[in-house]
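Hi P.,

Sorry for the delay on this. The queue was packed all week, but I finally got your sequence through. Input first:
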Amino acid sequence: MKTVVCPSPGALELVERPVPQAGAGEVLLRVRRIGLCGTDMHIFRGTQPFLQYPRVMGHELSGEVVTAPAGGELSPGDQVYVMPYLSCGACVACRQGKTNCCTNIQVLGVHRDGGMAEYLALPARFVFKTDGISLDDAAMLEFLAIGAHAVRRGGVRPGHNVLVVGAGPIGIAVALFARLKGGNVTVLDPREDRLAFCRTALGIEQTVRVDEHAKDSDKAALSALSGGEFFDVVFDATGNVKAMERGLEFVAHGGTYVLVSIVLDRISFADPEFHKRETSLLGSRNATAEDFREVLAAMKAGQVPTGLMNTHRTTLAEFVDVLPRWMDPAAGVIKAIVEV
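Then the structure:
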């Protein structure tokens, strides 16, 4: 089978590998769609903190069942999506239902080889029927579920003033589900094209552009939009240390700061600012089956503009050539899909 391998940062190879054999309790999946994620770009750059090379990327997956365990819920020919966080089910986190931060987690495409290939074998309990949505939409469930999980972590309620810092795909997902929860959403980003997408595709009217030539002009604009009180819940989806540290300044007194992005570094902040606000600081990692179901329901209800989000697509064979070009901000990628 054709497989795309990242042998080292900055390199991609299209190679032939044997079709995997499904073991006991496993599904053999014919991969049909692969969503390109920021994690994949970090792997290509060499800035993903949980990874060893070589690695087969790809964790935003949909496809068709080739073989499945007898007596289970899946049958050959079923169209399915994958929850790519393979959890142990037994550790302290899993026992609390927090499978997204399992102590033994194996994330496809990060801790173990993923789905940037024609076939993939994995435990059946992480494979679910698409329930009528398209294969394209099913490949977008995962990044949207990360946004839905972050919003659930942040406890967004109707009337909350919500700020999303970073308007990449994950930030867009956070903004979308925060708005669906009734939050008054503002998005902050240095790229006007991303802010324009939030306005036109998501209906988020309040956007603020970071201007590196006008120091703190964005903070002044955010203050004006919030009546000087700033935001009940702030989400960081930048993957940028300075932005993560600065975001605390935008949290209202008594508010919550949710770090969705991850960086290969330490972050710090001024304790007096943190303390006087009685800030709740939360991490948000991956998603759970509950979050995937929430996104699936929103898609079926027509609340997710997946057609607008899918801005680029390619084939498995062409992926090795187009990925470097797509990483240029000028390419305007929101969500790219690899068709197998």
